Amino acid sequence: MDKIVNKVAGSGIISIDLEEFSVPGERVIFDIKDQLFHGLILKEKDFRDFIKNNDWSVYQDKIVGIVCSTDAIVPTWAYMLLTLALEPFAKRVFFGNETEVENFLFTEKLAELKAEDYKDARVVIKGCGDKKVPVNAFVQITAKLKAHAKSIMYGEPCSTVPLYKAKTQA
Fold first, then answer.
1. Residues of the chain with pLDDT > 70: what percent?
2. How far apart, in whole angstroms, are the C-alpha atoms of residue 159 and residue 128?
3. Distance of alpha carbon 60 from its chain centroid, rounded?
4. Secondary element (H or E) of residue 94
């Protein structure tokens, strides 16, 4: 009887699971439209009263995205004032919807990755998992690793889609 050999384990492939770059914490979106007069106009006095009197502690330790879902012209200072109110409570504050917030978070975490650690490595970027990873994270890590990795693949070490192979120098 022949010995079973795990070729994947001996292949030297390094697997990167982008789920590990996910920032923990509840995400909430604050839509500024609810503070607009008739959903269109920001009245400074009313908005400042809202900022002053609102219970911002409900955003404690949450990751907050600020948006305006209506086609209103909201002055930039209103978003800044809202950020100042949220900042003492929220874990993070961003301008953007759910997708944009995830992209910001993954971008920050991927910036910490030292691509040179993958010099001449055969890398597979894990494709399936339990958490949703934004496509932008796959794009960013691919671009970041290309200058260093010997090859980049997508999927699982036992079943990959080849994406990139460095040119061998003669």
1. 92
2. 12
3. 20
4. strand 92-95
pLDDT of residue 167: 85
The phi, psi pair for 101, rounded to 5°, reads -60, -45
- Paired strand residues for 95: 66
Instruction: Select from 125, 98, 114, 124 the least CA-distant residue to 148.
Output: 114
Report CA dihedral (125, 165, 113, 154) to the nearest 10 degrees. Answer: -10
Q: Which helix (H) or strand (E) holds 16?
A: strand 13-16
> pLDDT tens for residues 62-110?
999 999 999 998 999 999 999 999 999 999 999 999 999 999 999 999 9
**83, containing H or E segment:** helix 76-86
Report helix, strand or coil for 130: coil
Dist. CA 18–CA 55, nearest whole Å: 35
Taking Cα atoms as reference points, which of 47, 50, 56 lies closest to residue 89? 56
Contacts with 160 (C-beta within 8 Å, 6 or more apart), sequence order:
124, 153, 154
Which of helix, strand or coil describes residue 34? helix
Residue 164: alpha-carbon gap to chain centroid? 23
